[in-house]
Amino acid sequence: ALASAYKKYAFHDEQDVVVKLDPGSGEVKVYVQKTVAESVSDTGHEISLAEARKLRKSVQVGETVEMKPVLMDAGRIAVHAAKQVILQRLREAEHQKTYEEFSSREGEIATGVVQFISPAQIYVNLGKVEAILPAGEQIPNERYRVGQRLRFYLLKIIQAGRGTQIVVSRTHPNLLRRLFELEIPEVHSGAVRVEAIVREPGYRSKVAISTTQEGIDPIGSCLGARGIRLQNIIKGLNNEKIDL
């Protein structure tokens, strides 16, 4: 990062720069690197064999040498630029880490907090990152408020130029499927299977279920004692009716 900054701001990208940092003292030395040539045609990148052998006697044509440390006002010319380059690299690394973490979670469910509401979309805090809930992925009759905690379906994880963009949904049928897996142990274990979902978000959903084991009542398993399991799912979907 320091080399990039010096090259850009001190040498206007016209020379190859090497930066060496002494870990013990913290001293930074800046060198110009040039290629040894029999006939110099580019003084910014080349040095004659005679001049190069003043620096290193055994050097040959085609090899590179490092010139004496460049003396300059680092504070005035390059420190601010170097800081910006380092911060940019850190941001890029953070964006890449976020993408790698969330790309494997596409199609899963996540809990988030409504952070900001605009006409086109809602911004949701997923903890480490921010996601967007587009208008088309919002439950029609659901009223959102800042600070509200909800479960969202991770619809798309996009690696964009300015970082990772996460798009979430409250209307996708698989949100309901994942809620069944979370709230109903028999669905999570595979003893009860969700075969199909037809959903009219915010109003009514129909869920076809079956069992893979004898003696298990799939409807009873999904309802739970006094219907508590299904009620938890219904409350999480703004009181959307669910027919089994």
UniProtKB/TrEMBL annotation:
KW Cytoplasm (keyword) present: yes
One GO-annotated biological process of the protein: DNA-templated transcription termination
Domain called S1 motif: residue spans: 107-171
InterPro entries, alphabetized: KH_dom-like_a/b, KH_sf_prok-type, NA-bd_OB-fold, NusA_N_sf, S1_domain, TF_NusA, TF_NusA_bacterial, TF_NusA_KH_1st
Keywords carried by this UniProt record: Cytoplasm, RNA-binding, Transcription, Transcription antitermination, Transcription regulation, Transcription termination
Protein name: S1 motif domain-containing protein
Any one GO MF annotation of this record: DNA-binding transcription factor activity
PANTHER family named in the record: TRANSCRIPTION TERMINATION FACTOR NUSA, TRANSCRIPTION TERMINATION_ANTITERMINATION PROTEIN NUSA
Pfam families: KH_NusA_1st, NusA_N, S1
UniProt key word Hydrolase: no
GO annotations of cellular component type: cytosol
